[in-house]
Amino acid sequence: MDSECFFVYDNKHSWSIIENKEGKYFLHYYPGSPSVEKLAAIPSEHWHEVNVRSVVYTSEILGTKEARDSLKELSSIVREKLYGMDAVLDEIIGTGKF
Q1: For residue range 12-40, what is the model confidence (pLDDT) as tens digits?
Q2: Domain residues for 29?
C-alpha cells in the first residue's frame, strides 16, 4: 500500500487515488478543482477537520473485476507519471544500454 496520489487531469480536474491495506482502491474527484498541492498537504489525521467536497468511487462499490482492474491500472499510471518513469524509460531506450 502506498500513500494517496493527487493529480490533475486535463489541467482542470483534481483527483486522488489510493489503495488501502485490504487492496481496495479509492478514487476521489474534487469538484471546483482545488489545488492538489494543498490537498496533499493535509495530514491524514486532519481530513475530518477540513471541509473538502469530493465524489468517491471505490473498487468495492463498482464491484466488477473490470472496474477493480481499471482502478489498479490507473493507480499504476499515476504513480509512473509521479515518479517520472516516461523520462527514465526514454533514457534507457535512447541509450540502448541494458
Answers
A1: 999 999 999 998 999 999 999 889 999 99
A2: 5-95
CA distance 69 to 87: 25
Q: Exposed, middle or buried, 17 (CB in 10 Å: 0-12/13-18/19+)?
A: buried
Q: Are 16 and 6 in contact (CB under 8 A)?
A: yes
Burial environment of residue 36 by CB neighbours within 10 A (0 to 12, 13 to 18, 19 or more):
middle
Length of the chain: 98
Q: How many domains does the chain have?
A: 1
Sign of CA dihedral 61, 66, 72, 75: negative
Pairing state between β 5-9 and 13-19: antiparallel
First to last CA, the chain: 29
Residues 11, 17, 22, CA angle at the centre, nearest 5°?
Answer: 175
Angle at 17 between CA 11 and CA 20, to 5 degrees: 170
